[in-house]
Each structure stands twice: as structure tokens, then as C-alpha cells.
């Protein structure tokens, strides 16, 4: 595990938090117990010495030392009796570590005045609690009893507590490490997998990698995002490859014609001047075809890159369709087709980019003319509260049901040679679909073989456009 990994940082934070809580807590508990033991010992010694001081009236006789013996025995304390002059007369259970000079002058004076003394004193590194009590004698003078109790009892409990705190800290550290390992498995593994996947995508351009992690959390959605990214890039790459091979193919055909006929003209492989003009016409048509192809491709790439903006305005579709019919009339006339617009009485208002709607309609009308041998092409328009509808109906060759879903794909043509012969590039409907989508519209194809095709455009009235 690296020192700068998220998991390590998390583990260190957990450990740090634990110690921050455990150390003061241990300290507080220690203080509490120390205080408690101290007051306990002090009151015990005070009790003892008071009891002794009240029971004993004279230091003569054996009784008092027996009582002292008895009391100190029970409580494990060292005791000494001093007479009124401050000389030690008796010692019981004496701890040799305690110096014989255990009372200062000032303390002796205080005892003579009848005061009780309670004080901590350290000998040889051991701390004792010293309690001295004056004994009022029958002659009025003050003897005294001095008790010493070591903190042995207390320090052993402190010892226990320290061990407990240390054990608890150790337990906490083990827990934290365990938790960190668990988290590193749970968190770190998918993150590392995603890092690898991202590197694979960026450095090796391998878009087939997927992260195998499913969870309903942030890491899960990150994994989904990585997968989504690689899927999109994969699709993009495949599309691009397909697009390039299509373009190469589409350009090759006209170029072959141009080269072949140019060659034929150069070597005068024609029978008559008419035939030569025919060859030159073919060359001209094929270069036109390349030119259309370039225009369509430029359009498509601009649209796909999101480089075109819509200049929306409200206009009457009737004028636009009327104009379209007039402009394409000659193409219909060439094939002897009737082309008409059934203009409604009311204006058909639409909020859209006029030039783009024009582009859409021209493409549809050109297709209708291209794929109709006899009969008519009819344009219709209708505006309702929901939106605006434009219909282009022809009596042409029709499209098979199974081909309809693919019509909007780039370079998809049901009949390649027919399309080519009529100047089609196979890109028209892809461009139309993009433009319709940009307007949040829909395009539907309804067709029957040898009966005809009806294309329905619908542009809904959008809430966001209403205030305009
Ligand atoms: N009105 C129609 N009638 C019959 N077939 C059509 C019609 N419009 C489009 N198609 C079919 O859809 C294909 C794709 O159309 P499009 O993208 O405009 O390419 P093209 O350059 O061939 O016109 C055409 O090649 C044709 O097979
Ligand atoms: Mg077309």
C-alpha cells in the first residue's frame, strides 16, 4: 500500500482519531482513580489515628502498644509513637525505608498545638501518605501517633489501568489496521482497476476495457462513468473507421469514371463528336458528384461536432414550401412528375431555423423526385396547438419495411446504383435526421413498395420557445 494512497490516509486518520480519544481518556481515568485512592487512604489513616488517639490516654503500660499493633496489622501501615518531647517510643510494622527524621520542627510544633497533619512524603522513590495525630495525655501534654501508608496499593491499580489502556490502544490499533485492510480491499481495488482502465484507454487506445465493479455508491457510479466513456470512445472509433472506409469507397467510384473517360477522350476512343461530348458530360457529372459528396460531408461533420447554431425565428412554412416547389419544379418536370404544394388557407407558423428547415425539405423533395418514376409529389403543412407538421408524399418505388430503420444511417442506400445515377450521396437523410433532432422534432417514414412513400416531419411547440 502506497503512503499517499487514499486508503492509507484513511487508516492513518482513523488511528490518529483513536489515539486522540484514548490518550486523554486514559489520563482522566488515571487521575480519577488516583484521587479516589488518595482520599480513601487519607480517610482511612485519619480514622485509624483518631481512634488510637482517643483510646489512649497514657503511653505507660502495654495496652496502647497492643492496640497499635492490632490496628496497624489490620491496615498494613507503619506506625510510630512519639512522647511529648518528640522522642520515638514505639514503632510497629515499621518500613525501614522511612527515615527516622520523619517530622519537621514545624510539624512537631503544630502537633503540640493539637493540630492533625496529613502529607505526602517520598522515601527511596516510594511515596507514602503520612498522617500524624496529637494524643492528649492526662497531664495535659501532647504525645503523638504517626502513621505511614505506602501507595503500593494505589500504584498497583495504576499499573493495572496503564496496562488496560495500553491493551485497549493496541486493540484499537489492530482494529484500525484491520479496518484499513478491509477498506483498501473494498475501496482501493476498484479504484486501482479504474486507474488501469483509464491508462489502457489513454495510452493504448484500447477502448474495449470495462471496469467490473457494481455498487450503488459513488465508486459504482464512477465505474459506470468509466465504462460509459470507453463504450462511447469505442463506438466513436468504429464509426470513424467505417466512415473513412465509406468515403474512400464513395470517392473511388467517381474518380475511376473520371480517369477512364478522360483517358478515352485523350486517346480519341470515340466514334463521333456527340460521343465525345457524352464522355465529357460523364466527367462533368462525376466531378459534380464528388463536389456534392464533399458538401454533404462538410455539413455532416459540422453538425456532428456541434459546430452549427440554430438561428430560430417565427415564420410561415407555407411561403417556404411554395418557394421550394418553385425551385425544384424543373427537376420534377424533367421526369414528367407533378409537384405541388397543397397550401392551406391559414398560415402555418413555425419557430425554427428557416435555412435548416429549407435544407430538410429540399432533401426530402429531391429524394421524392429521385425515387419516383411516375405520378406526383405532394407537399402539405399543418399547424396545431401541439406543433407544426410537414408532409412529403410521393407515388414512387417505395421502401421495404426492413430497410426503414437504416435509412438515416450514413451512406445507407437501398439501391446504390439507382441512388448514384441520380446524384445521391447516401448522406441526405442522415443530415435531415440530425437537423430534425436539433429542432427537437421527429421524422416518420411510412412507405409501401411500388405505391409510394410518405415522410412526416413534426416540430412540437416547446415550452422554452413559448415566451419568444
Ligand atoms: N422518397 C423515397 N422513396 C424511396 N426510397 C427513398 C426515398 N427517400 C429515401 N429513400 C431511400 O433512402 C436512401 C437514403 O436516402 P438519402 O440519405 O437521402 O440518400 P440518397 O443520396 O440516396 O438520396 C436512398 O438511397 C433510398 O434508397
Ligand atoms: Mg437524398
Automatic annotation (TrEMBL):
<dbReference type="GO" id="GO:0000155">
    <property type="term" value="F:phosphorelay sensor kinase activity"/>
</dbReference>
<feature type="transmembrane region" description="Helical">
    <location>
        <begin position="161"/>
        <end position="184"/>
    </location>
</feature>
<dbReference type="InterPro" id="IPR003661">
    <property type="entry name" value="HisK_dim/P_dom"/>
</dbReference>
<dbReference type="GO" id="GO:0005524">
    <property type="term" value="F:ATP binding"/>
</dbReference>
<feature type="domain" description="Histidine kinase">
    <location>
        <begin position="246"/>
        <end position="463"/>
    </location>
</feature>
<keyword id="KW-0808">Transferase</keyword>
<protein>
    <recommendedName>
        <fullName>histidine kinase</fullName>
        <ecNumber>2.7.13.3</ecNumber>
    </recommendedName>
</protein>
<keyword id="KW-1133">Transmembrane helix</keyword>
<keyword id="KW-0418">Kinase</keyword>
<dbReference type="Pfam" id="PF00512">
    <property type="entry name" value="HisKA"/>
</dbReference>
<keyword id="KW-0597">Phosphoprotein</keyword>
<dbReference type="GO" id="GO:0045121">
    <property type="term" value="C:membrane raft"/>
</dbReference>
<dbReference type="InterPro" id="IPR003660">
    <property type="entry name" value="HAMP_dom"/>
</dbReference>
<dbReference type="Pfam" id="PF02518">
    <property type="entry name" value="HATPase_c"/>
</dbReference>
<keyword id="KW-1003">Cell membrane</keyword>
<dbReference type="InterPro" id="IPR029151">
    <property type="entry name" value="Sensor-like_sf"/>
</dbReference>
<keyword id="KW-0812">Transmembrane</keyword>
<keyword id="KW-0067">ATP-binding</keyword>
<dbReference type="InterPro" id="IPR005467">
    <property type="entry name" value="His_kinase_dom"/>
</dbReference>
<feature type="domain" description="HAMP">
    <location>
        <begin position="185"/>
        <end position="238"/>
    </location>
</feature>
<dbReference type="InterPro" id="IPR003594">
    <property type="entry name" value="HATPase_dom"/>
</dbReference>
<dbReference type="InterPro" id="IPR036890">
    <property type="entry name" value="HATPase_C_sf"/>
</dbReference>
<feature type="transmembrane region" description="Helical">
    <location>
        <begin position="12"/>
        <end position="34"/>
    </location>
</feature>
<dbReference type="Pfam" id="PF00672">
    <property type="entry name" value="HAMP"/>
</dbReference>
<keyword id="KW-0547">Nucleotide-binding</keyword>
<keyword id="KW-0472">Membrane</keyword>
<dbReference type="InterPro" id="IPR050398">
    <property type="entry name" value="HssS/ArlS-like"/>
</dbReference>
<dbReference type="InterPro" id="IPR036097">
    <property type="entry name" value="HisK_dim/P_sf"/>
</dbReference>
<keyword id="KW-0902">Two-component regulatory system</keyword>
<dbReference type="GO" id="GO:0005886">
    <property type="term" value="C:plasma membrane"/>
</dbReference>
<dbReference type="InterPro" id="IPR004358">
    <property type="entry name" value="Sig_transdc_His_kin-like_C"/>
</dbReference>
